[in-house]
Design goal:
The structure holds 2 protein chains of 2 kinds. By secondary structure, chain A is an all-beta fold. Chain A has no helices and 11 strands. The chains are: A mainly beta, B mainly beta.
Chain lengths: 114, 111
């Protein structure tokens, strides 16, 4: 199993600003995944972050809006840029377990944009 | 795009009753998983069933998979108030850990 520390747990931001979310894992992992969960909705994968290479973004998500850093095998950040009220969501980081089949999740960041 | 559809969207039962949630998906899969989410926080993995399995048990959980119908069900027996949460199915197709999540079922167990 993996223990993931995600912060902040929640934040309230003004329109036009940015928020950076951090995820720290207690073991080295090759891939980390960032998900968005809009209010009352399911999880949508934003991007896959590999150490030492550019993140791979899913359709509908772009690097300018969601830049990701992955400086080492235990840490990643997701920035949500130029915030608008539509960005109000829960953002979750996750890592794969053995064989990258099941996922372990951080506790999530609840973002509200005013 | 989301591939899983779950029903019901919401389920309210009394403690001690069984809860059944269903999930359908559209494409071929390697495995199907169920996760639980309390109050919009991080998800917790409950159980994984591989595409060549038809049924799996874990404690009070029973999962079935019918690949011909592209559907799965999660049964929670003898439910408890602490089972109140949202439950999501997720499908994997060996794309390096990438999962596609269903819409979720919100379960409320009343004491």
């Amino acid at each position: 199993s993996a223990v993931i520390s995600q912060k902040p747990s929640r934040d309230i931001c003004q329109r036009g600003t940015s928020l950076t979310i951090q995820c720290q894992v207690d073991s080295q992992v090759t891939m980390m995944f960032w998900y968005r969960q809009q209010p009352g909705q399911s999880l949508t994968l934003i991007a896959t972050a590999n150490q030492g290479s550019e993140a791979t973004y899913e359709s509908g998500f772009v690097i300018d809006k969601f830049p990701i850093s992955r400086p080492n095998l235990t840490f990643s950040t997701l920035t949500v840029s130029n915030l608008s009220p539509e960005d109000s969501s829960i953002y979750l980081c996750s890592v794969g377990g053995q064989g990258y089949q099941k996922l372990f999740f951080g506790s999530g960041t609840q973002l509200s944009v005013l | 795009s989301q591939q899983g559809e779950e029903d019901p969207q919401a389920l309210s039962i009394q403690e001690g009753e069984n809860a059944t949630m269903n999930c359908s998906y559209k494409t071929s899969i390697n495995n199907l998983q169920w996760y639980r989410q309390n109050s919009g926080r991080g998800l917790v993995h409950l159980i994984l069933i591989r595409s060549n399995e038809r049924e799996k048990h874990s404690g009070r959980l029973r999962v079935t998979l019918d690949t011909s119908k592209k559907s799965s069900s999660l049964l929670i027996t003898a439910s408890r108030a602490a089972d109140t949460a949202s439950y999501f199915c997720a499908t994997g197709n060996n794309q390096g850990g990438k999962l596609i999540f269903g819409q979720g079922t919100e379960l409320s167990v009343k004491p």
